[in-house]
Amino acid sequence: MASNVNPTVRRRRLGLELRRLRELKGMTAEEVAERLLVSQSKISRLENGRRSISQRDVRDLCGVYEVDDHRIVDSLMQMAKDSRQQGWWHAFGDIPYSVYIGLETDAASLRVYEPQVVPGLLQTRQYAEALIAGALPESGTPDIEKRVSVRLRRQDRVKADGQPLRLWAVIDEAALHRVVGGKNLMREQLEYLIELSQLPHVTVQVLPFDMGAHPGINGQYAILEFPDATDSSVVYIEGVTSDLYLEKANDVHKYSVMYEHLRAQALNVDQTRAFIENIVKRYMTS
């Protein structure tokens, strides 16, 4: 569940505020870096929220920007302190996509397109185990179990009684036919997918093969939106060794338009359930 203090979101909000102060001062990131005798990349990482920021960093930046209102400085210093706290995911050790987990934990809604597999938030434990083991053949059992545990903990947002994550998933037909862990396991996974699709805050649509080329042909992506209006939406694209986060309004708009086209081309909710049920029957008889 979302904690009261989400360090990832705190860093992001603090970074946006520091960028605003820099722009009000009319300075470039390079100029600030020269003043503080640090690299320009450090200033950029602080502003985009990808790097932990210390209270000393905040103090130094406020000095450069000549912020003389102590209330503003104190507020930013507190945000820096909060941003260094640990989220629930830190208890699992080093997680490669911890930035994404922090964003997802605080998001109000998530739109995801998956071309190859069932989305992580809709996976059964057995499916997740088989999928991760197959995707990471050099990983040992402890690492696989850790990743599965984190994935299941993330699903708490979908199953929450209070303010659950609003999830919209468009899934390519290929994900339903890819036999992960055996046919019985796949049958159970698809039955679970149908079950979750009936939750009022979860929408699942299948994009069938006969739709041909479509806007998601280049691969998986997700769009996260947040309850606080000051937090801009984020497009997340998962990579093998590194992930991509797009936050510029123009980039988010392009991916949002692409997603609307995917929704329009996919089967509607009722058609999707019937489609999945037919595939379940095949797994039962084969």
From TrEMBL:
Please state what the protein is called: Helix-turn-helix domain-containing protein
Question: Domain HTH cro/C1-type spans what residues?
Answer: 18-72
Q: Which CDD domains match?
A: HTH_XRE
Species whose genome carries this gene: Streptomyces katsurahamanus
Database matches in Pfam families: DUF5753 (PF19054), HTH_31 (PF13560)
InterPro entries to which the protein is assigned, alphabetical: Cro/C1-type_HTH (IPR001387), DUF5753 (IPR043917), Lambda_DNA-bd_dom_sf (IPR010982)
Source organism superkingdom = Bacteria
